[in-house]
Design brief:
DUF6898, 28% strand, alpha+beta, DUF6898 domain-containing protein, 1 helix, three-stranded antiparallel beta sheet
């Protein structure tokens, strides 16, 4: 599935993992990628919107940080 809010050209991928769905949204212009995990009962449309909303949040945050996307890393241990 391609497209996003306003058809910004995001790539959205759905991957079923047992009782959950991993949704990845990717912006080919900035090479920024985010993922969420959700309940498949929510439906692809709702999960796709949530992933795109997260991607747009990360992109807005990066623009506020001089336009550079956040550094890739192993994540944060909580």
């Amino acid at each position: 599935m391609t497209g996003g809010a306003g058809d910004d050209g995001y790539i959205v991928e759905f991957y079923r993992l047992g009782g959950a769905v991993k949704v990845t949204a990717f912006d080919p212009e900035t090479l920024t990628e985010v993922s969420i995990v959700g309940d498949p009962k929510a439906g692809e449309a709702a999960l796709g919107r949530a992933a795109v909303a997260k991607l747009e949040y990360v992109l807005r945050k990066a623009r506020g940080n001089g336009g550079t996307p956040p550094p890739a890393g192993p994540g944060i241990l909580v």
